[in-house]
Amino acid sequence: MSPHSDLNAFWMPFTANRQFKSAPRLLERAEGMFYWDAEGKEILDSTAGLWCVNAGHGRSEISDAITAQTRRMDFAPTFQMGHSLPFLFADRLIKHTSKGLNHVFFTNSGSESADTALKMALAYHFVRGEPQRTLLIGREKAYHGVGFGGISVGGLPNNRRAFGNLLTVDHLPHTLDQERNRFSQGLPLYGVEKADALEELIHKHGAEHIAAVIVEPVAGSAGVIVPPAGYLQRLRDTCTEHGILLIFDEVITGFGRLGTPFAADYFGVTPDIMTTAKGLTNAAVPMGAVFSSDTVHDAFMSGPTEQIEFFHGYTYSGHPLACAAGLAALDIYEKEDLLHRGSLIAPSFAEMIHSLRDLPHVADIRNLGLMAAIELEPKVGEPGARGYEVLLKSLELGLLVRATGDTIALSPPLIIEMSHLDRLFQTLREVLRTIS
């Protein structure tokens, strides 16, 4: 892009537009573990783009598959018609999911996956003769995309302040307990009792009115908030006891981020519904997928066979190009064992990031698998300023990090090597030593 090009037309998402456009940070090319900017500077990507480029950038296997599919058939509807690719892709995907999650509903993003899962849960109870189950339980500090369903059950106030709630919701408390768990490596030891808040909400509202509980196994956007040991299993047990569906939002944790195919595998807890996106196609084409259990799916498969079972879907559900990208990405994940590779890298990743704990302004470090966060002490009267300073200084030194307020999040591509880790943490150490 020419330095004289007008940046005003594009209204950027989740960005301080005026601040950015006064000093834009533009990426022009990507390959493997790296981006390059307009001046040709090499930038190590420690964020997998936006938690999504799990197999690294510029995979020719994926781009070749998309190009070939464009020539063969660019689009086909999946409303009362079909084409082979979404059936093939769904069948391939369920070979990697927890037992019983055998059905896939395709969407176009994590936001759409979240809203689809919520509608699926409400409709499940409706078709079973319990239409009064309309209450949805989310969690404080949660992020479930930006659809009205997602922001309603989400727990980030700024995401819904201007829009309000359109659903009947309540929220579990978040699990961040820095008094007891600061600088935990892996699963925090304390806080499993926070799951008991679900019993309190059941007592408050009545189980007969609650449709589902939705949680991120690890809360990513709020700053890599790792659940205490045993927490998710306790939620699972309570939901099962009271006939409440459990939904895992695995948009970030899915496809190898924790060193297992999904967080459900890492924790040994199987939800009734699971949302995914991001790594599904290695971010080459927007796509999401909602996995449902046999129990949920089969509840819809009653009544006359000629009737539509679930009045929901998107024009681009199972889009041919997205399926082609997804199948090629899955080939890479399987061939290179990327769905498990993170478990081999995670110990070194954890050791290196926790070696930063004594640097100035570091208030907490949290990690699990190949995702981590460094929480910084905020400047007095300037929340977010210190995190933004780290973002800019890291970029100057050729490192891309993600800053959310005063929290620095890391989620590198799963192809990362030790040389990349050394460079990543040497750069971060240098930056953290010099921030004001």
Report on this model:
36% of the residues lie in helices and 16% in strands. The chain is α/β, with parallel strands linked by helices. A seven-stranded mixed β-sheet has the order 4-10-9-8-7-5-6, with helices on both faces. A hairpin with a 2-residue loop joins strand 14 (402-404) and strand 15 (407-410). Helix 5 (110-127) packs across helix 11. The longest helix has 18 residues, at 110-127. The model has no long low-confidence stretch (mean pLDDT 97).
Pattern of helices and strands: HEEEHHHEHEHEHHEHEHEEHHHEEHEEEH
Low-pLDDT sequence parts: none
According to CATH, what is the class of the largest domain? Alpha Beta
Please give the radius of gyration in angstroms: 22 Å
**The CATH topology of the largest domain is what?**
Aspartate Aminotransferase, domain 2
Tally of distinct domains? 2
**Global morphology:** globular
Strand order of the largest sheet: 4-10-9-8-7-5-6
Structure summary:
Keywords: Aminotransferase, Transferase. The protein is 36% helix and 16% strand.
Strand-helix topology:
Layout: H1 17-22, E1 27-31, E2 34-37, E3 42-45, H2 48-51, H3 60-72, H4 84-93, E4 103-107, H5 110-127, E5 135-139, H6 148-153, E6 169-172, H7 178-181, H8 197-205, E7 210-215, H9 231-242, E8 245-249, H10 263-267, E9 273-276, E10 288-292, H11 294-300, H12 320-335, H13 338-354, E11 362-368, E12 371-376, H14 385-396, E13 399-400, E14 402-404, E15 407-410, H15 418-434
Parallel strand pairs: 3-13, 5-6, 5-7, 7-8, 8-9
Antiparallel strand pairs: 1-2, 2-3, 4-10, 9-10, 11-12, 12-15, 14-15
